[in-house]
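My current task is to audit a protein record that another person submitted. Please read both lines and tell me whether the tokens look consistent with the sequence. Do not assume that whoever made the record got everything right. I have pasted the whole thing underneath without changing anything:

===
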Amino acid sequence: MKPLPSTYAAAPGHRYKIGDRVVIKRAFPPGHRRTPYYIRGKEGVIERICGAFPNPEELAYGFDGEPKKVLYRVRFPQKHVWPDYRGPEHDIIEMEIYEHWLLPATTAKG
């Protein structure tokens, strides 16, 4: 998949760049998590770097969310997310995922 042009500025110290292939960690820690279960373990491509924001997983418990976490928009082919998907091959799903949930696709197994 070719990345779309982005007008978002890179967050300082970001680990991934637009076009990088990543895998969402296959982790199931207790408590509030912003990353949906169905996307964990799936491979996608960084579509854009959204910036650095307070960590919502910490904010949910009344903490300050610091240090800020880099947020990315990741693109997945629908067929990779939903194996029985019967729509067009080019259909995608995009999701915003924080950096601490991402692994490089070349070394990750989820």
Q: What stands out?
A: The domain at 21-104 is CATH 2.30.30.50 (SH3 type barrels.). The longest strand covers residues 43-53.
